[in-house]
Amino acid sequence: MKKQVRNDKQALRKIKTMIRRTYISVIIVIMLVFAIHSCSWTGKKDKGDRPPILPETKFLSTMSDTKPFNINTDQLSPMYAGHNPELLYNTIRLRQEIVKHRPEESAEEHRSRIAGDVYAPIMGSLDFDSMYAFRINPAHRTYNAGKRSIELSLSMAPIFEKGLDGPKRAFVVRYQLQLDNSYTITEKNGSKRVVEEKKFSEYAIVPVDSRGVPVENRDKIAAAIPMMPEDARKTEGDIMFLVIGRLQSPYISYEELSRNPLPGVSGTYLARYHYLHIRVFDIWAYDAASGKILLRGLLQVPSENRK
Q1: Residue 52 falls within a domain, yes or no?
Q2: 285: exposed, middle or buried (Cβ count in 10 Å: 0-12, 13-18, 19+)
């Protein structure tokens, strides 16, 4: 009798084991079927009326040039970005600090120390006698259907250098906003006080003559490029200006302006202006995406500047 009970228990354990294995096998099969189905399912067909996941947008390169500019070229490289004005300014400023005369050194020691720095390239293969080109976004860009042309304008900003002979202007090539806050504080007596905080830096091209004197006083330079409507739709957003010229002594200058808060306003205002002194030879309009030169001769410069 005991032997029969023992055999029945063993048989029951075997049945439970088989049921458990079968259950696990079924679960595995279901999971495999679901995985295969998920991989092979394509869902509803895309009718083409949905936007792509990554919409196509035009991209203009910011890779700056490190070689002298060829003003006689008929075609620029695609995505041409010109030279980096901020890097050029900061490199020249560092170079000027290096070549300054030190109080403890003699004139001969000074000449010997700076001999290599004076003639060394500024960056890449560029030096103080190289031709430079700086890309600038148009301030205004629109298509005139009646004249079938794209109308562009290049704005010029006031120069804040001291000792200028009348108001002069420059091409702003880079603007960097560091702080721009405005808020109101309520005092204990219930009065309100406006606080404004603004800090920014500008890098600009100052057109100068052969003596290094700023010469430009126009507010803007305008241009019109003949173009058919279908071509304008393709290229209008890619058209840029290119300011071309050579460095002229003193090469760079710097001004820092701050103003007292206005009546009823407190806070901070600090503007840093970094100027590159350039004898401008010409200004072009070009398609920055393709590198096609669309227009030359936008700046009428004195004949001495073309030498």
Answers
A1: no
A2: buried
